């Protein structure tokens, strides 16, 4: 099972956890959890006016071997207005626009979507239960 928690954070409320959203999905081949502004296709939805987040921004997908990966989906613009970082085991990696990376099996961490124009972020914590 993959468990996700999401907090939308601006400079005014940094450190606050009010309004945290959660979603989970059993580990089954092809299972998907998405994060983005379009509530019709995404399980975790940040504020609608936070345009640095695409309608479908992140996709967590379970592979045939029951391992999970996260992808930064390309939107309608060639250059993103955000930056995405993956933090696991105290190490931070930039996730390239349109790129994917495997999540650690049985591990936890955070995927951070940062606004390039201001002090806002969408922080998505993950925990993979084996």
From TrEMBL:
> What name has this protein been given in UniProt?
FHA domain-containing protein
From the broadest rank down, the organism's phylogenetic lineage runs:
Bacteria, Bacillati, Actinomycetota, Actinomycetes, Kitasatosporales
